[in-house]
Amino acid sequence: MSKKFIYGFDVNKYIDKAIEKMSFTYPWVSKKLFDKRYEYLIEKINNKYQFEYIYHWDDSSEKKILDVDSDGFIQRIIWDQEYAVEKVNEVKDVFVVPGQSGKVLHDWHLENYEFRSHKLGGYSVFCQAGDRVTGGSRTFFIPPSYFEGDYDSFLDKYIKLVPPSFGFTREELANIPELKKFLGY
Fold it and tell me: Whole-prediction pTM value?
């Protein structure tokens, strides 16, 4: 067996490995939630096996050979599918972190910092900041394993996922009893 193809030549084994890795952060993940526009293949081309994917548009498609090893192929599947898996899990409840007004982060003004619970389970945090010309936002899904243990343990892990440069320090979050309650502690 080739080192490049550590799980053999059945593409479904690589998809299963991607799902296994994604389940760390997205416990609701399943293949049926994947974006159907992506198709993954392992084919023999010029007498050599290759990882490939096809992206299907409404009326055409594009096939690409990927110059990666097994881990790279699995990571590619994850990158392609994360948005679809996140999008399907709608927001159920929102907790807006107080104290955002007037907070400046490296010349950007914090506009929104909120924790969200989701219908299929799990939590995420949404951070948004900007200035007079531009802005940006990012959503972080919080792995369920972060909730194992007490609230202090959660905050220790959380602050590594969403560092203070996105809005709040560990100490600031620890002093918001409503957040602790929202997260189930």
Answer: 0.85
